[in-house]
Amino acid sequence: MEDKVVLLDFWPSSYAMRVKIALAEKEIQYETKEENLPDKSSLLLEMNPVHTMVPVLIHNGKPICESLNIVYYIDQVWSHKSPLLPSDPYQQSQARFWADFIDKKINGLGKRMWKSKGEEQEAVKKEFIANLKTLEGELGDKLYFGGDKFGFVDLALAPITSWFYSFEICANYSTESECPKIVEWAKRCMERESVAKSLPRPSKIYDFVLLLKKIYGI
């Protein structure tokens, strides 16, 4: 029986982009169902009743939730092609540590940066850049976070780079000036078809941010 794979998606979601990259890396055919988060579908409420958020991967009728958990699942189930996590337990633990760092120290701050103003925004920007520099230190002179091959940590961070342009305009700074190695790494990631076709244009994200700022009255 052929696998049936469905992704509940919301196009600006960097979390959903992770799943799309993983599916592309594994060359898995899937169906996308675009969600309207202000008016969530009954399918989303049924498949993710705890958080009621995207992304949700539905594999042969069974839901898997939370982006990094989904990527781990994909890597385990379709293990024959393009491994995303290292096989060595220690290296795998390090990859999961840095992916968790990205969730806790990068993604959440990014949202606060475009939603805030004044001194609060300056403080958030300072912390965000410091955390990016920490990641830059971990990357070092390697091509990718895991070494020579694109992997789990790259996949965890790459989607948020599509938001960098919006963060820079909203908070008035340059990622390239602050973290040049991260920018070089991001360009390298975008040379991969799996990443390039999964990330929206930064200008499209910025248009979305402007819409959100209008809705929130910022």
Question: Could you walk me through the main structural features you see in this protein, from its secondary elements to its overall organization?
Answer:
With 218 residues, the chain is α+β, with helices and mostly antiparallel strands. The protein contains 11 helices and 4 strands. The protein has helices spanning 14-25, 42-47, 67-77, 89-115, 118-139, 152-157, 164-171, 175-178, 180-190, 193-196, 202-216; strands at 5-9, 31-34, 56-59, 62-65. The protein has a 4-stranded mixed β-sheet, covered by helices on one side. A hairpin with a 2-residue loop joins strand 3 and strand 4 (62-65). It starts with a strand and ends with a helix. The relative contact order is 0.13.
Structure in a nutshell:
The chain is an alpha+beta fold and 218 residues long.
Low-confidence stretches: none
- Overall body shape: globular
Helix content: 55-70%
Largest sheet: 4 strands, mixed
Quickly list its features:
alpha+beta; 4-stranded mixed sheet; 218 residues; 8% strand; 11 helices
Helix-strand layout with pairing:
Blueprint (H helix, E strand, L loop, with lengths): L4 E5 L4 H12 L5 E4 L7 H6 L8 E4 L2 E4 L1 H11 L11 H27 L2 H22 L12 H6 L6 H8 L3 H4 L1 H11 L2 H4 L5 H15 L2
Parallel strand pairs: 1-2
Antiparallel strand pairs: 1-3, 3-4
